[in-house]
């Protein structure tokens, strides 16, 4: 039997009230699809059907970036859900090279974070582990239309 230590949730300066769910997936080509399905099912079950499409697309883009651009063994997807908003955190084990939007909108690749930026209410990156980083997180927040931020 293999034991896996799951790191604590990285905490950007966002409210953390709500129910927390997480998925830890191996860094494989199927990780984006698994994360997308996890988030879609979770948001439908927690009565956020209006956020499903945007959340699925954003988590797929961020997990795809972690898969393509890191050698991390695992990718963790943490989701905090409350009645007003959904906060999604995607964490890998490589703290260097924080991702940032950079490609032109019509480029064939590199548009993932531009998509995340355009669909979310807030998003950002953070590292964990202090001066000697142990990982990075890309996070985003989706707010239910008409419900406003907490």
């Amino acid at each position: 039997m293999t034991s896996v230590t799951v790191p604590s949730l990285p905490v950007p300066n966002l409210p953390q009230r709500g129910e927390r769910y997480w998925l830890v997936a191996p860094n494989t080509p199927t990780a984006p699809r698994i994360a997308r399905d996890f988030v879609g099912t979770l948001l439908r079950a927690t009565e956020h059907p209006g956020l499903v499409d945007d959340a699925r697309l954003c988590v797929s883009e961020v997990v795809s970036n972690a898969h393509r651009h890191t050698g991390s063994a695992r990718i963790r997807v943490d989701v905090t859900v409350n009645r007003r908003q959904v906060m999604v955190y995607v964490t890998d084990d490589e703290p260097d090279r924080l991702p940032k939007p950079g490609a032109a909108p019509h480029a064939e690749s590199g548009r993932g974070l531009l998509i995340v930026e355009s669909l979310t209410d807030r998003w950002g990156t953070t590292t964990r582990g202090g001066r000697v980083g142990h990982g990075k997180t890309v996070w985003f927040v989706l707010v239910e239309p008409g419900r406003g931020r907490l």
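The CA atoms of residues 62 and 84 lie 22 Å apart. The radius of gyration is 15 Å.
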